[in-house]
Amino acid sequence: MSELSLGIAGGGIAGLSVALALAQIGHKVAVYERAPEFLSLGAGVQLGPNACRILAQLGLLDHVSKVAIKPQHLFIHRGSDGAVLVDLPLQTLATQRWNSASLVIHRGDLHGALLEAARANPRISISNGARLVDAHDMRLGIDLHLDINGATEIRHHDALVAADGVGSQLRGRFDGGRGLRDTQRIAWRAVVPAGDAPAFARSASTHLWLGAAAHLVHYPLSGGTLINVVATTSAMAKRLVAGDYDAASDDADSQRHLAQSFENFSKEAKQLLAAVTSWRMWPLFDAAPLSCLAHGHIAFAGDAAHPMVPFLAQGACQAIEDAGALAASFKRHPQQPREALAAYNGLRLARASRVQAASRRQATIYHLSGFPAQARDLAIQTLGPMGMARGLDWLYGAAA
Ligand SMILES: Cc1cc2nc3c(=O)[nH]c(=O)nc-3n(C[C@H](O)[C@H](O)[C@H](O)COP(=O)(O)OP(=O)(O)OC[C@H]3O[C@@H](n4cnc5c(N)ncnc54)[C@H](O)[C@@H]3O)c2cc1C
Question: Which of 18, 174, 241, 251 is deepest in the core (most CB within 10 A)?
Answer without folding.
Answer: 18
